[in-house]
Amino acid sequence: MGARCSKFSFCWWHSHLKPSLDSSDLENGGKNEKNAFPTFTEFNLDELKMATNGFSPENIVSEHGEKAPNVVYKGLLENGRWVAVKRFNRSAWPDSRQFLDEARAVGNLRSERLANLIGCCCEGEEKLLVAEFMPNETLAKHLFHWENQPMKWAMRLRVAFYLAQALDYCSSKGRALYHDLNAYRILFDQDGNPRLSCFGLMKNSRDGKSYSTNLAFTPPEYLKTGRVTPESVVYSFGTMLLDLLSGKHIPPSHALDLIRGKNFLMLMDSSMEGHFSNDDGTELVRLATRCLQYEARERPNAKSLVTSLMSLQKETEVPSHVLLGIPHGTETPPQPLLLTPMGEACLRKDLTALHEILEKTGYKDDEGIANELSFQMWTNQMQETLNSKKHGDAAFRAKDFITAIDCYTQFIDGGTMVSPTIYARRCLCYLMSDMPQKALGDAMQAQVVFPEWPTAFYLQAAGLFILEGIEDDAQEALKEATKLEAKRSKN
Q1: Is 191 assigned a catalytic role?
Q2: pTM confidence score
């Protein structure tokens, strides 16, 4: 039987390898449903690799500049939950304990006004955060880079109100500091509701810089001390109000000059003309001005922001997705990859577990392979072939992998019988002996003999994971193995 020409079959070979929380914490959103939010989890690196398809560039949601301190990926956990995975560069968070303490503290927060932190990972030099995934882009996208229609006035007021609620909730839980609050930190969930990213609640540990935006937008006291205070966060909230008023990112000093000169109507987004009352515009300008006071002590706190914005809300009965002009909900995510024990062992590169599985399975899968046996069965050649198999199996059980390789090679070279299991066992022996390229060759030969055999693809995945640098191919082989095994279990 011929092999299918896939990127992890012989075509690939020749081109690549030439020699927990209380319900009382579900605040500011109103749904006290049990299990409304996932509990905080410490993930292992392999789980997050699997979720993001090996940190594939295709899964990148956002990254910052050339000296990127982190990259955010979209991922799909095994339970079918979409997540945002923030991966820090290796120089960030040199203190692992500080990273874990910060993550756990932020992970204790749960609000429908936040894109909540649901987990983290700290393995070696790798530091990652895992948050709820928000599928409907950022405030910057909807406010500054809209395509079909500008953001409606009622939606702008709702964004300001929900953001104030988020900051008030965080303050009430002892997390009043938020780093670099800007229009990219506001995300929209599947219902179109704005949420504040939890990532800004984590302290920046390496360089102490909490503002990556232009200095024209940073609080005056930060320029002096380099430290963020709760009042600094309110100042940044004021810059967000200017964004919502103008539909542009206007430096506060310029905006305040216009306001003092009674020219504040020049601040207003021209596309909003006729869509709001002068009283509403004046009130929002007044609130922004209070937030942008030079003296930090003269700015309002988060709770008073909530009170001020509550009375300005419009069209409160209209769902957010309607105001935002987006379809409701998201498409059903694809069925998550539910790994079998063999699949998990491949992903972990746990060769001992693979050895146990192959030994336990024995040769039962060979029953589906037709072997052409003639009079040679009774010849000395046949007896020698069977003896080499017998000795190979004894060495395999005893974990004498070099001897097993020799014996299985004699069996294969004898040419009397063809056994995919022999190829699979020799493949594992090669992996155990640090010969992954030869192992991959045997796994692919097992696929040639038995094209629909999950084990052949599992072992290809194991070899590709061990070879490193070719994660995409390893993931493809693992997916194929999982799919074939699921198909087999249904029959």
Answers
A1: no
A2: 0.64
